[in-house]
Automatic annotation (TrEMBL):
Entry protein name: Aldo/keto reductase
Keyword Oxidoreductase: yes
Record-level GO cellular component terms: cytosol
GO molecular function: oxidoreductase activity
Isomerase found in the keyword field: no
A UniProt-annotated Pfam family: Aldo_ket_red
The NADP-dependent oxidoreductase domain, residue ranges: 15-315
Gene3D superfamilies, per database record: NADP-dependent oxidoreductase domain (3.20.20.100)
Organismal lineage: Bacteria, Bacillati, Actinomycetota, Actinomycetes, Mycobacteriales
Alphabetical keyword list: NADP, Oxidoreductase
Similarity remark: Belongs to the shaker potassium channel beta subunit family.
Source organism, top-level taxon: Bacteria
Amino acid sequence: MAYRYLGNSGLKVSEITYGNWLTHGSQVENDVATQCVRAALDAGITTFDTADVYANGAAETVLGAALAGEPRESLEIFTKVYFPVGRKGPNDTGLSRKHIFEGIDNSLDRLGMDYVDLYQAHRYDVETPLEETISAFGDVVRQGKALYIGVSEWTADQLRRGQELARADGFSLVSNQPQYSALWRVIESDVVPASKELGISQVVWSPIAQGVLTGKYQPGQPVPEGSRATDTKGGDNMIKRYLNDETLTRVQKLKPIADDLSITMAQLAVAWVLANDNVAAALVGASRPEQIAENVKAAEVTLTPDVLAAIDEALDGSIERDPAKTVSPETRIV
């Protein structure tokens, strides 16, 4: 496993990071989830990403139990706060001081840990003054409950203002967690340049576009049983934008590119996001332990300019680049 620095910090993270959105406490049984975590550790993954909203806290509980007994100093644990959790009352959401303070304590309790390495704003909260949010995150760091602070799906302007306030408060934002793949490139024109300017890395989710870039979804064919596209708990809604014959036909053009490199299409997709030098880590999930070993091999792959150009040509016409697709909720999600 290779490691990269997280933003302009001294923290190194495994460039393949294990994420448990839509799996732990939801799609897979707890014993299988534990097997997946053990497989990740065996593959050299030391960085694990979760969130309080995943399965309404159950994902954090399952991850903490699966990691119990591992030396804490050998792990990098990420979690997030923003979305409605718990009883989902009026203050059980957003980035208010109240919710951040209660959120970190509840997350640590579920994880069975004294601190997390990275605490992330899961979205931008348009209803809480940013000064309040940043001040609360700074206090979480000073209390030793989180070592670093990051965000998720923030725009370039939000990153700039947040970093300005954070530095004035004595800490820095070190990461942003956006969706990013060979099909979804909306961060490239604005967010990535701003992040490089500010010392912020990307920890990207959905590098294989919810499974579309594995090639398992075939044009003109029904979706496979048990796939993300059949998951009514959230997966089917995320993937439907790609399930058209035009996009699926273009994705199939990636297979000969992967074959020439003697890698799978999934490995090609993960290697593609890691080719961006502002990406610190690619988040991969798993519903079966063997998926971990396959995805980790992407860390060994270096894509040449010619290969990157061939990928662009294959997918041309189905690539989303509009920076406006990185948007904040217009009101706080309740």
